[in-house]
Amino acid sequence: MKQNVLAFFKQFPDDDTCLEHLFEVSYGQGHECPKCERDAKWYRIKSEKAFSCQWCGHHIHPMVGTPFQQSRTSLQLWFFAIFLFIKSRNGVSAKELERQLGVTYKTAWRMGHEIRKHMAGVDGETPLGGIGKIVEADETYIGGYEKGAMGGKGKAIVVGLVEKDGDVMTFVVPNRSQASLVGPILNNVHAGTTIHTDTAGQYTALKHFEEYTHLTVDHSISEYVGKDGQTTNTIEGFFFHLKRTIKGTHIWVSPKHLPKYAKEAEFMYNRRKAPNTMLPDLLSTFPLQTWT
Ligand SMILES: [Zn+2]
């Protein structure tokens, strides 16, 4: 399916079409009524955003459990905002959404964050690695304006893990302690994985975990690929793109909101080989939101 603006508006010409889409992907005709427990035909109720059971009149509200649930913004604008997100290489600023959608800046800002959280939910947190697999781990400072001790005031630390030819995972951590840098690896990387890091002392803790093989690359001597082929180039490339997106598109991001931008970048990276799945999946899977 083509995914240009014209195709988008052909598929979703109005709010009703969007609501019907939500009904179809989550319920569909023939869906068993939760109240009378019969396989039912569902009729659209014109007076509210709901469908009604042919037998008992029970209502299903397809927007419940989606990011659009509490919003007064039209469903079509929400869908289009998501379209803009997946079409952009470097993220969408609130200002840009405001302009494209004709909503207030405040609404645009809130929509952007809801979409990032939704991307995080659809992306999921599937562990990386496994026997014979390689995961690169590294950390970086992102955000803040002032240079200073510990990498600068207002900056946050992001730990990134990326499987070779696979997915990336990001974690915003409070400091560069051993627990902060190694914890995400222990919690999210399968046993049997070979882990590549730089020579930062925190990662030496990995030698206590027999389930991993740990190889390091020494950046202090300008080594970028070690003698066993170990490298952290992929995760550094991901960080580079994330930083460029934040600087170029959003100018500045608070540490509080940084996880959402990191998750957006994560979603986009993990779908890089199947970009056409982004829009359909974001408009048809609605995992429970577990963070704000
Ligand atoms: Zn019923």
Overview of this protein structure:
- This protein has 292 residues and is an alpha/beta fold.
- It has a domain at 134-251: Nucleotidyltransferase, domain 5 (2-Layer Sandwich), CATH 3.30.420.
- The protein is built from 9 helices and 8 strands.
- It has helices spanning 5-11, 15-26, 75-87, 94-101, 105-123, 178-188, 233-250, 258-270, 278-282; strands at residues 42-45, 50-53, 59-60, 134-142, 156-163, 168-173, 194-198, 213-217.
- The chain has a 5-stranded mixed β-sheet with strand order 6-5-4-7-8, with helices on both faces. A 3-stranded antiparallel β-sheet has the order 1-2-3, with helices on one face.
- Helix 4 packs across helix 5 (105-123) and helix 5 crosses helix 8 (258-270).
- Bound molecules: zinc ion.
- Zinc ion (ZN) is lined by residues 33, 35-36, 38, 40, 53, 55-56, 58.
- Residues 33, 35-36, 38, 40, 53, 55-56, 58 line the site of zinc ion (ZN).
